[in-house]
Design a protein that fits this description.
Elements (H helix, E strand, L loop, with lengths): L15 E7 L3 H10 L2 E5 L8 H9 L10 H5 L9 H10 L13 E5 L7 E4 L31 H4 L14 H14 L6 E2 L2 E8 L13 E5 L2 E5 L6 E3 L4 E9 L3 E14 L6 E2 L12 E2 L2 H10 L9 E4 L3 H12 L4 E5 L19 H12 L14 E5 L2 E6 L3 E6 L2 E6 L2 E4 L3 E2 L42 E3 L9 H27 L7
Parallel strand pairs: 1-4, 1-11, 4-5, 11-22, 13-20, 14-15, 14-20, 15-16
Antiparallel strand pairs: 2-3, 6-10, 7-8, 8-9, 10-11, 12-21, 17-18, 18-19
Amino acid sequence: MPLLEESSLSRDHPLTVPVVIIGNGPSGICLSYLLSGYRPYLDTGVVHPNPVLFRKLQERKHLAITEQDLKYLSEGLEGRSSNPVALLFDTLLHPNADFGYEFPPVLEWRLESQHHVPHLVLGRAAPGGAWHAMEGSMLTISLGIWMELPGVNYRDLTAGNRRGVANDRATPEEISSYYKNYVKLMGLQKNFMDNTYVTSVQKLQRGHEDTIENEGRGDVVDGKKEFEGKDSGPVVLPQGVWEVRGYQRVQGDTHVPFCLFAENVVLATGASDAPARLSVEGEDFPFVFHSIADLGVAISKGTLDQNSDPVLIVGAGLSAADAALCAYNNNVSILHVFRKRVDDPGLIFKQLPKTLYPEYHKVYHMMCSQSHTAAGAPSQFQDYTSFPEHCVVSFQPDMKCVLQNGGNLKVFKISMALVLIGTHPNLFFLKDHGQYLGLDPSKPISCRQNPIEIHPYTFECTKEANLFAMGPLVGDNFVRFLKGGALGIASCLMKRLKKKATLIADGGGGLV
């Protein structure tokens, strides 16, 4: 059934929704869980190993964590996220995880339906987001238990898949299946609208004179937008509400446009929408790709094998390492190009323990030992050559690539090129592509270099009221930390709704 057609307002859906979440990956799923009335309380039968935090938790143990002062609770916490609420939620769910311990969570979850906040989660595919599109044979960087969401133990849904105490990582297929099943087990399906594509998000202010197409008509009346749809009377919207437009794919390739309104919008779109580009000559040639999936397709079709010219892999991150492993394991020759030195402390490989990530340390060893400068040295890894401190100058029509190191140019014949230098979020549906929301408004949004600027305890955008962001958009790239965004946003919205209800009861009006 279509979400909400512009040409006919379904009476089964409210015209204005308190919260619309854009993105149905782990960020959006976790927030939906909290907004659905699942509330975290201190489990009085468990002791947190941090005595200071445990004392604070006991002070108001009768209150849900979402009702407490998150700033007070998170003071003094340290860890692998720069966001204090992310650190708080992580240590409540996985105490002392960074020290290798597997202590039980100190939270118990209670379903209190009276605290349900109506919301919709809009996603382009099934719940799980980008995990459904990832290469299924690779292993996650995080341990499987760090990928789980509140209330459902990851191992309970993946029984028999554990790879050992020292290596309890998961495949993307296992993780995406876990997220889909999680939504069903928690009864969240009614909040999720799959196969939806958002094309426009804008705030309707006083004097806004946009019209709604097709059968509906929009007019401004006394500073409020009045919508008259088929089979419905005029509906007056308060100023400052968000208008969300897009389409839903139904019955194959049929696209049904929709328009709905939200008091609050949450950006949970992740970081994998748009691959980063080199912006060099020839990058649009058909033999240049920006996804590891294209390498798998070429190998499976037999267009790339041990007799092919080398595949050029550009990048020094985990995606590039995955591509190198895939090609190496299929006896495909590799030219591996990256800008950094092999001893650069910023390389991700230096941050990964060897016992947990042996395959990535194998790639790193190849990068160090199989450099093009080591000509004549014994070769442990055939058909692999690394080019540290090199960059791509251009790709040529005859399937050659030109590399540069200092003032030296090198030309190689290749079979295909994989440019794997990261991804960027695509916020095209926002004004100025959302650039004005960043820490540096003069630059595009980048999850690492220029994340969206938020209030650290509410995750509300500092430059736009009632617009929230979470996950990679605010710099939290690991599932174990992006869950903190759900806690911060849910806490903020519930406190505002409680204040709104109090004002209404006192006859003082309400808040948008």
